[in-house]
């Protein structure tokens, strides 16, 4: 119970901080609209409304993913600049439990990205927002947010150990768009890429969102997405102690 | 059982020099520090910047691993039982960092109350009590970015006490505070031991350690060079003399040659606009005025005076000794 409370309160306060940053806010407002515009302009040529919705959903999840991949690194970097990272490490609660709400907060911003992208597509490009299974769609979005939060946690923990690893967050942003089929079906990718796609929760989250919106069976994909998200959390929890021990040994926690 | 025990603590940092031809370099920040703090005592770790105070405290609060040696807090090993140690200690450092500026003071405390595992039903009352204690009541719902340095520092203290820790580590808590703010904070620190807490305070202000601490360890270049009650440390210099010589443009070699003189306990230089004040501590029986003036090699000398040594002189002598 106290764990749930910690996650809920910390998520709320982290989310509050993110929303109060004018620069983050500006980026979060504009970024997804650029994604959506690019994707929709590419797909508009001769495409059916169904394909346009396919592209709009892809662009929406691109925005969600960008919010997590780039922000997880910079959020950890900010904790270093603010001098709060050491306070989080020295807190009695498990460090991964402290970081999870922070990355979930970032993933939640992604929900705005999704909504903004779909509305932009609807009002500017005239895409009909017909969601076949609204409830499953909502569940798929929540499941994807949770899985992204789990993946963000794994990133965040590695950023504690490697100070410059926040750059990797930016590096991972674009390959995942491609590998996880946000805009291009996985079938078009070379065979050797598939196993990488399968172990990445965004692949299944994207698929679940599309299946529920366009009509299909999203549940298996959603379960896979959640399962992978949970496994990321598990791995993060397992490596946290090792990572912190290493950082304490190297004396890097106080460095910016 | 002592509340804090440090035994032969060593801490080395690995660093690099150069850009293209990178060379590894090891810096010994702490070199064999040992001390013990009794429960309920206020112990001061006093030393200049870079003496190893913060490194020592960070090993004790589980933020750094000792390179060698061991330390226990309330009988718990700081390496093996780190998580248990964290439940029992509070950590407060000086300066403006360590605060979530975009959150209010209240939200800062609420966040850390969760992180420190303060039971939900106690949180509100505990936060209110602490806001009252540190004098932030009525400003608690304002964003911390608008707080003065002193207010942020008091918020730090409140945060460090949220989970009612048995041992509190205060790392230069009054640094950068104005005299009134620093005095208020000192009285708050004094009240902690009255509430039964063990406090380890690091500072580079001698008067602060003197006013607050039951015992003081003076640390310089990673080593403890003196330990005792403030009275003990004062006794160590009461027999000496202090010669102050106003000089203009004194060379480092000259200072070193004065420092090497028999009967000289310590030498320090204070900058005074165009001049410098050479403060030489000597043994009581030594009459070195003419010898010291001789070592100034005919350089321009201003006012010369002799006075009784103070506690500050004792500290300067200890931290400038080779």
Model description:
Chain A has 256 residues and is mostly helical. Chain A contains ten helices and no strands. The radius of gyration of chain A is 18 Å and the shape is globular. The two termini of chain B are 35 Å apart. Chain B has two domains: 4-228, Rossmann fold, CATH 3.40.50.300; 238-320, Alpha-Beta Plaits, CATH 3.30.70.260.
Q: How is the topology of this model organized?
A:
The complex is a heterodimer of chains A (256) and B (322).
Chain A: H1 2-19, H2 22-44, H3 49-82, H4 85-89, H5 95-125, H6 134-161, H7 166-179, H8 194-198, H9 201-214, H10 218-250
Chain B: E1 4-17, E2 23-37, E3 42-46, H1 53-60, E4 68-73, E5 76-77, H2 82-88, E6 89-93, H3 105-115, H4 120-133, H5 149-161, E7 167-171, H6 179-194, E8 198-203, H7 206-212, E9 215-220, E10 223-228, H8 230-238, E11 241-247, H9 252-259, E12 264-272, E13 275-282, H10 289-295, E14 301-307, H11 311-320
Parallel strand pairs in B: 3-8, 3-9, 6-7, 7-8
Antiparallel strand pairs in B: 1-2, 1-4, 4-5, 9-10, 11-13, 11-14, 12-13
Helix pairs in contact in B: 3-4, 3-5, 4-5, 8-11
Number of domain modules of chain A: 1
Beta percentage of chain B is 25-35%
Outline the biggest β-sheet of chain A: none
What count of helical segments of chain A does DSSP give?
A: 10
Give the overall pLDDT of chain A as a whole number: 83
- String of helices and strands of chain B: EEEHEEHEHHHEHEHEEHEHEEHEH
> Between the first and last Cα atoms of chain A, what is the distance in angstroms?
35 Å
- Give the oligomeric state of the chains in this entry, treating copies of one chain as homo and distinct chains as hetero: heterodimer
**Morphology of chain A:** globular
Second-tier CATH architecture of the largest domain in chain B: 3-Layer(aba) Sandwich
């Amino acid at each position: 119970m106290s764990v749930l409370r910690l996650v809920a309160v910390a998520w709320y306060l982290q989310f509050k901080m993110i929303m109060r940053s004018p620069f983050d806010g500006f980026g979060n407002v504009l970024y997804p609209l650029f994604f959506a515009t690019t994707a929709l302009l590419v797909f508009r040529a001769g495409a059916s409304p169904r394909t346009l919705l396919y592209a709009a959903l892809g662009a929406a999840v691109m925005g969600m993913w960008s919010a997590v991949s780039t922000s997880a690194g910079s959020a950890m970097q900010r904790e270093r600049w603010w001098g709060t990272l050491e306070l989080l490490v020295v807190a009695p609660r498990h460090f991964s439990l402290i970081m999870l709400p922070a990355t979930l907060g970032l993933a939640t911003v992604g929900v705005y990205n999704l909504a903004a992208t779909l509305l932009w597509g609807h009002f500017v490009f005239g895409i009909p927002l017909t969601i076949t299974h609204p409830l499953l769609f909502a569940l798929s979005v929540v499941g994807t947010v949770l899985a992204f939060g789990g993946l963000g946690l794994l990133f965040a923990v590695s950023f504690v150990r490697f100070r410059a690893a926040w750059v990797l967050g930016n590096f991972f942003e674009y390959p995942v768009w491609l590998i996880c089929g946000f805009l291009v079906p996985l079938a078009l990718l070379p065979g050797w890429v598939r196993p990488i796609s399968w172990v990445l929760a965004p692949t299944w989250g994207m698929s679940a969102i599309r299946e529920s919106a366009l009509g299909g069976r999203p549940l298996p994909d959603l379960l896979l997405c959640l399962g992978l998200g949970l496994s990321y959390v598990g791995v993060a929890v397992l490596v946290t102690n090792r990572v912190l021990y290493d950082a304490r040994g190297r004396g890097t926690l106080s460095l910016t | 059982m002592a509340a804090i025990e440090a035994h032969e603590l060593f801490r080395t940092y690995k660093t690099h020099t150069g850009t293209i031809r990178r060379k590894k370099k090891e810096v010994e920040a702490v070199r064999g520090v040992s001390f013990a703090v009794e429960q309920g005592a206020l112990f001061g770790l006093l030393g200049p910047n870079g003496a190893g105070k913060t490194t020592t405290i960070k090993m004790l609060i589980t933020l750094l691993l000792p390179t060698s040696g061991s330390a226990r807090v309330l009988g718990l090993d700081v390496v093996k039982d780190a998580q248990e140690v964290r439940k029992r200690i509070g950590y407060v450092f000086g300066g403006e960092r360590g605060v979530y500026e975009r959150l209010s003071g209240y939200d800062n405390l609420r966040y850390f109350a969760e992180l420190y595992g303060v039971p939900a039903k106690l949180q509100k009352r505990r936060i209110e009590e602490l806001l009252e204690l540190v004098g932030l009541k009525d400003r608690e719902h304002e964003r911390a970015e608008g707080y003065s340095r002193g207010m942020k520092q008091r918020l730090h203290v409140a945060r460090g006490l949220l989970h009612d820790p048995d041992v509190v580590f205060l790392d230069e808590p009054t640094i950068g505070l104005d005299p009134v703010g620093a005095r208020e904070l000192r009285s708050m620190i004094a009240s902690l031991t009255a509430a039964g807490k063990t406090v380890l305070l690091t500072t580079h202000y001698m008067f602060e350690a003197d006013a607050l601490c039951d015992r003081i360890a003076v640390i310089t270049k990673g080593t403890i060079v003196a330990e005792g009650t403030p009275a003990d440390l004062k006794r160590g210099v009461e027999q000496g003399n202090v010669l102050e010589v106003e000089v203009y443009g004194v060379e480092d070699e000259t200072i070193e040659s004065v420092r090497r003189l028999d009967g000289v306990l310590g030498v320090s230089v204070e900058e005074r606009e165009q001049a410098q004040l050479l403060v030489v501590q000597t043994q009581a029986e030594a009459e070195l005025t003419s010898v010291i003036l001789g070592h100034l090699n005919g350089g321009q000398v201003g006012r010369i005076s002799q006075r009784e040594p103070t506690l500050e002189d004792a500290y300067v002598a200890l931290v400038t000794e080779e």
